[in-house]
Specification:
The complex is a heterodimer. Chain A is an alpha/beta fold. Chain A has helices at 47-54, 65-70, 82-99, 135-145, 166-183, 200-208, 221-226, 235-250, 269-278, 294-297, 306-325, 333-343, 376-383, 399-405, 408-414, 436-443, 454-472, 474-483, and strands at 19-20, 24-29, 32-36, 42-46, 74-75, 103-107, 152-158, 186-192, 212-216, 255-260, 283-284, 286-287, 331-332, 363-366, 371-373, 390-393. Chain B has helices at residues 23-32, 61-99, and strands at 11-17, 38-45, 48-54. The chains are: A alpha/beta, B alpha+beta.
């Protein structure tokens, strides 16, 4: 004879004695909800279980109880250290913000030999030297760089085509190395370039100073060249030749590539990824178009929306996971950033996905004319006539005035997701960030209304998809967890 | 009654009991679904508040009903969120205070 439902173990009937810890929740799909906490841990629950849990009525024997307890969604008599642990984890995640500005972008010229249809920076033709940064401005900017308390400094050279002003890059690198002998910071350099101007002298200099190169590769030749016209040349072939030269001289890890999703590439994500595989890359960042510069003027940015891009991303991610399962190790960078926010104690150092926003305090831009901007996109917006993110000028402003007396504080305060409508209750907040420049560009408001935000739709879509894969697809989970480290 | 709403002149009129749905939950649900309709919230009168969901021109009855259903679902979620906020608000403050207690970010005064 069985004892039946009335004779279960004591814990089955235990009266609720747990307390809730701070959490956010929202629908994942169908009847499933995802709950997250401030340090990025998550639990997936059915709606009924979520409600039972929040009402304080979940039995300790319930299958979800242990997960909710170990991931800091509740504490009971046997878990009194939960608050201390949560505080420690929270502080660890916030430490990077306290380090302050680590990425310093020098726009050494706006001149460019390409005329990309999606160019975000409103490049100028090659012969207009008035769009080069002057040496005195570079020196003043460098003085500001070393005022940052960050123990790690990365100086990134951008354009236009940055190598068209290589003499200034050389000067800035040599001067930064000289000054850093006193400061002792972890100093790195990156040159963003289309690689058409690469020569032996530049490569030797890069090798001497261990300078990384970041270039563009949009996919196979027809896709790459479709929106990257190069005067008297073939952009795709120039990029490939440059990539090989950098690898041969500096080593395979010294060159990385970025792609931009164009309307033509939407249906060809596997072609794009396979091109990266053919060229030996182990990572790819599936990036959507940004609403700045020529991408707006040419109306290219209007030719697809966030849902189109999300479909592109999901198909691409499936292909990359399949490649991994078949033995080719490769990762998708946006996914890796979100996964690190989910599973790594410190999270990634990616400045474009932070709360408060990384503008100014994560990255700062010294434009070709000496103007200082809170972000690369901020200077792109300025080229379109909106000076919201201009923080000052190297001739007239000090580190203190840029950081404390400019409009930066107000924008940063408005960028805290924890106090933003909708964001404050969104379960994906710990995996997201604030993009005041995007919302200023698309809604004329740095905060934006998230019900209408393409940025929000994209980020929520990515987080939701990753959680679904981890929960429902064991082979995919094994691959994705490898990217979280 | 929920489910009986009619689309009249592009809008669905609701009467909500604020003892069931707090006004703050109603406002948050309306904000979250602003891409589907504009909610016009009246003044509270004897435990009830009139809410009119105004849809875009040419919205079908079926789409409007789906939007209304989503609104009621969101109201339930928002009520739960208010419950969580009430219970955990002080704990969150305690955790943040503990997290930043030895960082030197705050003055002792």
């Amino acid at each position: 004879m069985t004892l039946g439902a009335h004779f279960k173990v004591r814990s089955e009937f235990a009266s609720s004695s747990y307390r809730l810890l701070p959490l956010r929740f929202g629908r994942l799909d169908g009847d499933r909800y995802v709950a997250t906490n401030d340090v990025g841990e998550y639990v997936v629950l059915h709606r009924e279980d979520l409600e039972t849990f929040i009402r304080g009525e979940l039995a300790p024997s319930h299958p979800s109880y242990r997960a909710l307890k170990s991931r800091h969604f509740l504490f009971d008599d046997s878990s009194r250290v939960a608050l201390d642990l949560l505080a420690l984890k929270y502080r660890t995640r916030a430490e990077r913000t306290a380090n302050f500005t680590g990425l310093h972008i020098f726009v050494v010229t706006l001149r460019c030999d390409h005329s990309c249809h999606y160019c975000q920076v409103s490049r100028q033709t090659e012969d207009r030297a008035s769009f080069d940064m002057r040496r005195e401005h570079a020196d003043k900017a460098l003085a500001l760089v070393f005022r940052s308390p960050s123990p790690a400094i990365k100086i990134e050279f951008q354009g236009g085509e940055s190598l068209l002003n290589f003499s200034l890059i050389r000067h800035i690198v040599e001067e930064a190395v000289r000054v850093n002998a006193f400061h002792g910071k972890d100093l790195q350099f990156v040159i963003a370039s289309n690689l058409t101007r690469l020569d032996d002298e530049i490569l030797a200099f890069c090798k001497q100073h261990q300078i990384y190169l970041s270039t563009s590769l949009d996919g196979p030749e027809d896709l790459h060249n479709a929106h990257r016209p190069l005067r008297d040349g073939n952009s795709y072939r120039a990029a490939l030749a440059g990539i090989e030269r950098v690898r041969a001289t500096l080593g395979p890890d010294y060159v990385s590539a970025l792609m931009t999703t164009t309307p033509e590439s939407l249906g060809r994500v596997t072609d794009v990824i396979d091109e990266y595989v053919r060229r030996g890359f182990r990572s790819i960042f599936l990036r959507s178009l940004s609403p700045y510069g020529f991408a707006v003027r040419s109306k290219l940015v209007r030719r697809y929306d966030a849902s189109d891009w999300l479909e592109f991303y999901r198909r691409g991610l499936a292909h990359i996971i399949d490649l991994n399962l078949r033995g080719y190790s490769m990762r998708e960078e946006l996914s890796a950033i979100v996964l690190q926010k989910m599973f790594s104690p410190t999270g990634p150092g990616y400045v474009d996905l932070q709360s408060p926003a990384g503008i100014g305090i994560g990255a700062i831009v010294y434009n070709y004319d000496g103007s200082i901007y809170a972000s690369d996109e901020g200077r792109m917006l300025a080229e379109m006539g909106d000076q919201t993110f201009r923080l000052g000028h190297v001739d007239t402003d000090s580190f203190e005035s840029v950081m404390k007396e400019s409009s930066l504080i107000d924008v940063l305060e408005a960028s805290l997701l924890e106090s933003a409508p909708m964001c404050s209750e969104c379960p994906f907040l710990p995996y997201c960030g604030s993009d005041p420049v995007f919302h200023r560009a698309t809604m004329t408001d740095t905060l934006g209304h998230k019900a209408f935000s393409a940025f929000c739709q994209k980020q929520m879509g990515v987080s939701r998809h990753l959680i679904q894969l981890i929960e429902d697809n064991e082979p995919a989970r094994d691959v994705l967890m490898g990217w979280a480290r | 009654m929920q489910g009986d709403e009619k689309l009249v002149d592009g809008a669905i009129a609701l009467r909500l009991d604020v003892r069931t749905y707090r006004l703050v939950a109603i406002k948050k649900a309306a904000y979250r679904l602003a891409d589907r309709f504009t909610a016009v919230i009246g003044t509270v009168d004897a435990d009830f508040v009139d809410v009119t969901l105004r849809f875009r021109p040419a919205t079908t009855e079926a789409t409007a009903r789906e939007g209304t259903r989503a609104f009621y679902q969101e109201l339930l979620d928002q009520e739960l969120r208010e419950h969580v906020a009430e219970e955990t608000g002080q704990i969150r403050t305690l955790i943040l205070a503990q997290a930043f207690s030895r960082t030197g970010l705050f003055d002792n005064e």
